[in-house]
Write a structure and sequence with these properties.
Serum Albumin, Chain A, Domain 1, WPP_dom, WPP domain-containing protein, cytoplasm, WPP_sf, nucleus
């Protein structure tokens, strides 16, 4: 069969359930996200924290060993916050609102984390320079 024939071939409609109710045949839920989706968010956070990103250039990259637990904590806190406010979404619209809140929480918590880490790094003098500075003050 040629490709043109495949494109023109009619696609059979899905069979309707016995009661004729189309909504029972398909169920769609946007909230809560699946574990697979949550794991993808964590992987992306790790890439953002430890990779060559604008965020890392501005606030400093997070070592890979620290990026994974930080990413998991950021995602879990954002999920818990969204679950507390959105709960079990009764409609698709409520699910979308909960997902938007979750996304904003992930972003906000990520930014808070890199800013606080950057501030902590700047507040602590490098270990090699601290004794040299102390020696210079006593002379």
């Amino acid at each position: 069969m040629a490709t043109d024939e495949l494109a023109a071939a009619p696609v059979p409609a899905p069979a309707a359930p016995a009661g004729g109710d189309q909504s029972a045949a398909f169920s769609f839920s946007i909230w809560p996200p699946t574990q697979r989706t949550r794991d993808a968010v964590v992987r992306r956070l790790v890439e953002t924290l430890a990779g060559d990103t604008i965020l890392c250039k501005r606030y400093g990259a997070v070592p890979a060993a620290d990026a994974e637990p930080a990413a998991r904590a950021i995602e879990a806190e954002a999920f818990d916050a969204a679950a507390a406010t959105g709960g079990a979404a009764a409609s698709v619209e409520e699910g979308i609102e909960a997902l938007q809140f979750y996304s904003k929480e992930v972003s906000r918590r990520l930014l808070d984390f890199v800013k606080s880490r950057s501030a902590n790094t700047k507040a602590e003098p490098p270990e090699e320079e601290a004794p040299a500075a102390a020696e210079g003050e006593t002379s």
